[in-house]
Amino acid sequence: MPDPTALPQSGALALLTATLLVCHGCASISPPGPMLPHDGPAPLPKGSTEVGLMLNAAGGIFLDGGVGVVLRVVHQLTPTTAAGGDFGVGFHSSPKHARELGRMRRMWMVRAHGQHNPGGLENLALVGGSGLTWTSRDLLALTLDTSVLTGNDFSLSEESNPPLLITPLAALTTAVSIPLAQGQPFQNYEKVFTPQQGKKVTQPLPTTTWYIGGTVGIGVEGTKGLAPGGTLTASWFWADAEFGEAILMNVALTPRLRLHTDGP
Known about the structure:
By secondary structure, this protein is mainly β. The chain has one domain (about 50-260): Beta Barrel (Lipocalin), CATH 2.40.128. About 5% of the residues lie in helices and about 55% in strands. It has one helix and 13 strands; from the N terminus they run E-E-E-H-E-E-E-E-E-E-E-E-E-E. The chain has one helix spanning about 95-100; strands at about 50-60, 65-75, 80-90, 105-115, 125-135, 140-150, 155, 165-180, 190-195, 200, 210-220, 230-240, 245-260. A ten-stranded antiparallel β-barrel has the order 1-2-3-4-5-6-8-11-12-13. It has a two-stranded antiparallel sheet with strand order 9-10. The chain is elongated. About 45% of the residues are buried.
């Protein structure tokens, strides 16, 4: 059980990265980056660039909820290696807290990431990322994440025009968020009442937080032209920090387009 004096905090997910997760509640955690997967493990054609917009809704146990959006760009450098970047913004979903602070609590995320398909496999990929997450309450965190992503493409009908690929996917992710600046509590007070102690105590600030969890989803993608597609994912993460633990849950929808270029 989390410390009852723990600070309501905000987080993000991930994901992308990771995920985008926007959360805070009675667990004093440092938010992760956008670490959630947006597509299956199969590499893009060499020289291709894919652009996706990840729309997220998040909540959890010992956490409040939030919404967010992540812009993700991925470029296929070689037949087995891709690199990309994320930029995301998240918002806390509590109107009450927005009224108390005079504005909605916000979070921003940047993340660089890479993907490698070992041995040229199309149904298995290793993904890693690093970035920064910061909030409107001056919390700044370094985020690191690594994932194993699996899935397999198949076509429902070879006669569809253009052909559509269906991709069930799953990922196992571990991540850490390291506060570089702890900032201020997200709520507009510094004390909470704890019935167990019968007095008010200072809320702890977020500390280094470890995450482990998984994602399942399904994607649909065209195979011609801009190859329009989209992926629906659901994710669960266990967060562990010095002053509390939490379970994070996220649902994301990622529409995307593929820009084909002439690779070397």
